[in-house]
C-alpha cells in the first residue's frame, strides 16, 4: 500500500493491515492459480461488477471467474489501495489496478483501471468483501 493510502485512511491500523496483507495474498494466489483461496476473501453473498462481465453474485462462482481471467491471458496483476475508510462494520477501499494481458500473437497489452471494494465485518469478526466493482481506464471506443 502506498504512503498516500496510509495518509488518507480513517480505518483502524488493524483493518488497514488486513487489507494490505489481503491484497498481497490475493494477487499471489492469482499468480499461482489458487482460485479457491482467492474466493475466500469474499462473503458468500458477494457481488462483483467487472469490466466486460455481467454482474456476478455469490462467492461460489468466483474460482471459475478467476480461472477465466487467467486463461484469457491476464498476468502480473497489481492492485494498490489508495484510500481506506471505515464506518463501523463497513469499510470502503478505493484503489487502482494494472496488469498485462497476453494476446493470441504472444504480445502483452497493458490494462489499468480503478476499483471500489466494500468490506463488511462478519459476525465472527472477520472482514470479507461484500461488493467489488472495477472500471477499466480504456475508453469505450477502444
Secondary-structure blueprint:
Elements: H1 3-7, H2 13-31, H3 35-39, E1 42-49, E2 56-57, H4 62-71, E3 74-87, E4 90-102, E5 108-121, E6 127-136
Question: Can you describe this structure?
Answer:
- This protein is of the alpha+beta class and 142 residues long.
- The protein has a single domain, classed as Roll (Nuclear Transport Factor 2, Chain: A), CATH 3.10.450.
- It contains four helices and six strands; from the N terminus they run H-H-H-E-E-H-E-E-E-E.
- The protein starts with a helix and ends in a 6-residue tail after the last strand.
- Mean pLDDT is 91; it is low at 1-7.
At the fold tier of CATH, the topology name is Nuclear Transport Factor 2, Chain: A
Total helical segments: 4
Could you state the order of secondary-structure elements as H and E?
Answer: HHHEEHEEEE
**Strand line-up of the largest beta sheet:** 2-1-6-5-4-3
Q: Report the sheet-strand fraction.
A: 35-45%
Largest sheet descriptor: 6 strands, mixed
Q: Count all strands and give the number.
A: 6
Amino acid at each position: 500500500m502506498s504512503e498516500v493510502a496510509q495518509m488518507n485512511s480513517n480505518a483502524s491500523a488493524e483493518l488497514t493491515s488486513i487489507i494490505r496483507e489481503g491484497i498481497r495474498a490475493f494477487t499471489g494466489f492469482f499468480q499461482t492459480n489458487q482460485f479457491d483461496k482467492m474466493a475466500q476473501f469474499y462473503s458468500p453473498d458477494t457481488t462483483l461488477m467487472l469490466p466486460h462481465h455481467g454482474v456476478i453474485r455469490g462467492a461460489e462462482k468466483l474460482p471459475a471467474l478467476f480461472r477465466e481471467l487467467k486463461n484469457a491471458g491476464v498476468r502480473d496483476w497489481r492492485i494498490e489501495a489508495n484510500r481506506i475508510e471505515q464506518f463501523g462494520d463497513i469499510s470502503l477501499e478505493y484503489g487502482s489496478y494494472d496488469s498485462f494481458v497476453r494476446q493470441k500473437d504472444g504480445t502483452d497489452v497493458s490494462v489499468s483501471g480503478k476499483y471500489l471494494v466494500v468490506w463488511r465485518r462478519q459476525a465472527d469478526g472477520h472482514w470479507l468483501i461484500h461488493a467489488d466493482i472495477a472500471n477499466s481506464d480504456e475508453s469505450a471506443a477502444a
